[in-house]
Amino acid sequence: MWEYDSPIGLMIIKMDRSVGRYALIINGKLYGRYTSAVAAAHAVSIHTTGCTDWDRLDGKVKNAPGTIHRLDHVRDCGAIVLSANHI
Description:
Blueprint: E1 2-6, E2 9-16, E3 21-26, E4 29-34, H1 37-45, H2 52-55, E5 72-73
Antiparallel strand pairs: 1-2, 1-5, 2-3, 3-4
């Protein structure tokens, strides 16, 4: 599971075992399912997530992750993790 504490809130990429794809979750809302975590991270990096708040910041976010390697890799406990700052 990967996390990015973005300017608009917490983004999570995690395997959705029910469909065998990686889910992109932003502030607790599912924005898409991808064939790989790398593909989900790519959507984040090029601001094509479907989340208007994030996508409209294209070119405006300093130090936005360009690859999955720039996201925080964390242990997946099976639950969606939300930051208290973003609830």
